[in-house]
Amino acid sequence: MNADALRSIKQDMAHHVHPQSNLRQHAEQGPLMITHGKGVFIYDSEGREIIDGFSGLGCVSLGYNNERLVNAAIRQMNTLPFAPTFYNRSHPRVAELGERLIDMAPSGMNRVMFQCSGSEANDTAIKLLWYTNTARGEPQRRKIIGRVRGYHGNTIATVSLSGQPHMHAKFGLPLPEFKHTELPNYYRFHIDGESEEEFSGRMAAKFEELILAEGPETVAAFFAEPAISGGGALMPPEGYWREMQAVLRKYDIKLLADEVVCGFGRTGNMWGSQTWGLEPDMVSCAKALSAAFFPISALMFKDALYADMIKNSDEVGTFGHGYTYAGHPVGAAVSLEALDIYDEIDLVGQVRRVSKRFLENCHAMADHPLVAEVRGVGLFCGFELMKDAKAREPFDPAWKVGELVQNFAHDRGLYLRAIGDRMSFMPPLIINEDEIDIATERFKGALDDAWAVIKAKM
Ligand SMILES: Cc1ncc(COP(=O)(O)O)c(C=O)c1O
Fold first, then answer.
1. Domains of the chain from N-terminus onward
2. Residue 176, Ramachandran bin (φ over 0: left; ψ between -120 and 50: alpha; else beta)
3. Ligand 1 atom closest to 287 (CA)
4. Chain segment 222-255, per-residue pLDDT in tens
5. Which end of the chain is less packed: N or C, by CB atoms within 10 Å?
6. Which Gene3D superfamilies match (predicted)?
């Protein structure tokens, strides 16, 4: 390792506290220092070339070098590096981005607000629901339902809504207004002999039970990722969204589709909502909106909700919500360029083309002794690792099998993410078939390496 890399690591260990990290491990081993990237590859401080099989954090859609995005940022920085969107002020790029997003949005969205992260988009949505429910004379409709293992962000409200126990522990969370319904992992939780459709019906019945127990008149909305990402790349079972939406309609409960990961092509359609037939009332997006070249997010919703916002704004005199960098001109310019590129390269067509090879290769690993289930769509695939696939017996969590595979994959030059014993594989959307072959070969090698260790323990 060269002197620069050593200095960076020393600086980082001395002062930088890392989010979502094992702090003890950081103190003892230091960080993995990534120095640069190109295409689907990232490079660490030891000069190792690694295929990014997790798109950074599910956000680097166009890879790590893109002159057009860079130039869009520079042009905008030279023209107008900042302009507030508070106090009835605007600038051309954010107006254009709003129109562009609404033109492409699913399910009749007509209004958009901007923020800097997925968390802020979802947090804004929660506030808007509370705000507008007072305008509708239903101030008691404050409860928001998420799912066990769902993920919607890390503000106090959005992490409360997320079903991630390690993000609640010691923080005194979740807040009481946030409830969680079942995780629709068919493979893990179906009863013997139960079909996917039947399982989905049971999930919806459980959901209805929760709504009735809480009181339907107190429930504002259900927030859900079309396919669960941070909870382990979990695709919904057959019939799930049809059944869940029937319950929502029955009790007049709103649906927010969290498209922070699924949006912009990941699932082989522009939106995950299109892949699985969701008809949301609100849509949040972030990450690939700017291809991860600038932090920006958006919350879209329908005119009906906007009408209630106007009512309250009239009464109070202003709509009292917003962030300094909402609709940042550079973020808007970079996002517009990203959307242009998506059109020009036919992003959805590209994902559909290469996902054939991607999913074929993924499914070819299904009979590996560590792998119990492979399920994916587009460039988004989850792998369940189990001690006994048939009996659905998990490994002892202390064996950290997922982490072992992740580490072996890194050694072989592939970044994969382990979520417990589920592996999430979601490369940049510009990946080509040769790179897919190399990545999946490395994945398979990592499974073999891990199996050699695990077999000896069994
Ligand atoms: C589905 C989903 N929603 C929301 C978020 C939060 O986004 P951010 O980290 O930009 O706040 C994430 C982050 O991974 C996510 O996966």
1. 32-65+346-457 (3.90.1150.10), 69-344 (3.40.640.10)
2. alpha
3. 10
4. 999 999 999 999 999 999 999 999 999 999 999 9
5. C
6. Aspartate Aminotransferase, domain 1 (3.90.1150.10), Type I PLP-dependent aspartate aminotransferase-like (Major domain) (3.40.640.10)
pLDDT in tens, 44-59: 999 999 999 999 999 9
% of the chain beyond a pLDDT of 90: 98
Q: What is the pLDDT of residues 163-212, one digit of tens each?
A: 999 999 999 999 999 999 999 999 999 999 999 999 999 999 999 999 99
- Other Cβ atoms less than 10 A from the Cβ of 24: the count is 8
CA of 319 to the centre of ligand 1 (A): 25
Ligand 1 centroid to Cα of residue 118, in Å, is 5
Cα dist. 414→28, 49, 189, 261, 298 in Å? 24, 9, 30, 20, 31
Q: Is the pLDDT of residue 458 over 90?
A: no
Token duo for residue 223: 């927030």
Q: Is the pLDDT of residue 324 over 90?
A: yes
Write down the pLDDT at residue 36.
97
Q: Report the nearest atom of ligand 1 relative to the CA of 155.
A: 11
Are residues 380 and 227 in contact, defined by beta-carbon separation less than 8 angstroms? yes
Q: Is 283 in the pocket of ligand 1 (CB under 6 A)?
A: no
Distance 98 CA to ligand 1 centre (A): 20
